[in-house]
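Repro:
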Amino acid sequence: MEQPDGRSWSLTRVAALCAALVAAAACAVAPLPDGRSGEGNQPAVPGGEPAGDDGLLEGTDTVEEFEQDIAGAEALADRYWQQRFAGFGATFRPIGRTIAYYRDGEVSCGEQLIPRNNAVYCLTTASEFIAYDANWAYSVFQAVGDSFLFYLIGHEYAHGIQVRLELEYSFSIQRELAADCLAGAYLGDSVRDGTLQLDDGDLDEFQRGLEAVADDPDQPWFEEGSHGTAEQRIAAFFKGYDGSLAGCDLS
């Protein structure tokens, strides 16, 4: 089923909504409005090979598909949250910038350099953006599937939504699991309204992607930067996927 304007997205091959990614530099660990630092994901890459410093890895899935999926996920998130904020009776301001980087410390969020193998939402007084290590993201894209990129953008976009809604959390793990839930809601609702088509195996890809970015089971849950175990992250994501925003305690 398509939207009235005829657009639809498929997780196998997303329509090219942008000519290419905004490639400059950048995933970000960011100072949030309350003075806390934003988080970064540093997962294992299941089956991935080490990436070089000069650009994206070559593999079965093309760089063009990777770029189209990133652009499509960002456009889908913009559309989804604009509609939801209209339902809240609130004005929505999209994040509007997604940045790829390739080297450790190539981009900074405020004064904090961003390491490799990371994906982060950054907010400072001067800028707001989502950024990701393109080599790492492409490795996971090849190993897990294109669904991972929609989750990845959805999770980082959700941090921007948390800021816009002024949601507060006592521990970083609460903020991260809530972002997983919001990412699930944006994807589940987009499937239900026909904007996004899932292919066979995509739900399994979401689960494998969440396992890839999970904390080590021995990591204390209360540590700053904790995101949750694989079981916690999968449960949070599918709570939003199945239950929409109400499953994430938003309405």
